[in-house]
Fold this sequence. Notes:
The structure holds two protein chains of two kinds. Chain A is of the alpha+beta class. Chain A is built from six helices and eight strands. Chain A folds into three domains: 1-33; 58-98; 104-222, 2-Layer Sandwich (Alpha-Beta Plaits). Chain A has helices spanning 2-32, 40-77, 82-98, 132-144, 189-192, 201-207; strands spanning 103-113, 149-152, 155-156, 163-165, 170-172, 175-177, 181-186, 211-222. The longest helix of chain A has 38 residues, at 40-77. Classes of the chains: A alpha+beta, B mainly alpha.
Amino acid sequence: MANKKIISCVLGIMCLALTFCICVQMKTVKQYSTKIGQNYDQKNLRAEVLRYKERYEHLLKEIDNLDKTLEGKIEEATDQNTDLEDARNQIKEGNKLIGLTEVTGPGAIIRVADSNIESSKVLDPSLLVVHDLDIFAIINELKNAGAEAISVNEQRIVSTSAIECGGNIITVNGEKIGSPFVIKAIGLPENFANLRRTGGYLEKMEEAGIQVKFEKSNKLTIPKYTGILNYKYAQSVK
Amino acid sequence: MVFVAIILGCVVGAIIGINAPTISYTYSSYLAIAIIAALDSVFGGIASVINKKFDIKIFISGFFGNAVLAILLTILGEKLNVDIYLAAIVVFVWRMFMNLGTIRRYYVEKWTDKVKNIHDAKKNSEQKAVQDNTEDK
Lengths: 238, 137
């Protein structure tokens, strides 16, 4: 009888582990699978892409960790020395200005998305989609209104950021982003509200059928620039 | 008792599994082959319980050993660019069917015996009733 108890215990635990694994596996497969049929090559390619994505994310995390260690080391080294502390503060301020740190503050969020109108119903379907130049114009207006930090779909706009058209998507900082576009800006929200003026760019876009939403915010966070700022040709004039 | 434990284990495992986080896509192919190996071991365990040859040491070592071996073979296959995991799947599924066959035969035989017994009992009682009737007359 005792033997039977042990047997059922062991079998029960094994079944538990087994069903647990099956559930986890099913969830994982569901997360990454699409409903479109795929052949063998496509499947392999997808797996490859996912693997690279994972590796990329892993490396990003590593960079984050290294940045933190560097900051800690700098703090450690400059703890006692007031001169160095000034230098450290300067570095911090500089990093904030060029977009290498996450910043938070009041500002505005603009959401623009491709139109819902069917493209066959209008003369020029090109008017119904958000173009790179639209994003560019909005960013320009935000800068004009005194924006201190701007991001498009979590891509920080820095001095070297390029916004280009890439077919049905837009690339910002070399990263592909698609509609809907969420443009965040930190600055005085009342100034940003002027973007909604009659005859302004946002209104023109809305007239063309594009969905535009403007929102003031008391506190929003803009991520830091994750790329590398490297000046190879420009040299300081002494 | 054994089957109550199995069902309980399955239900609890499913509940935990549904609430657990997903794993990364790279490892999901290894987990899949390990699941097949473990499933084979569990069916083998049930079949041996029925045959009254169950040995815990063999069962546990088979459960983990098979899973680990299957994963290692998959990794080796990936390195050599040969789909070795296909062979592992064939073997495991084949064994699973064998074990399922054992389990099925056992229960079908048990069931036919039961039906036969009931049938015999009915026949006996009818005969007895007939005999009683004749004796009464």
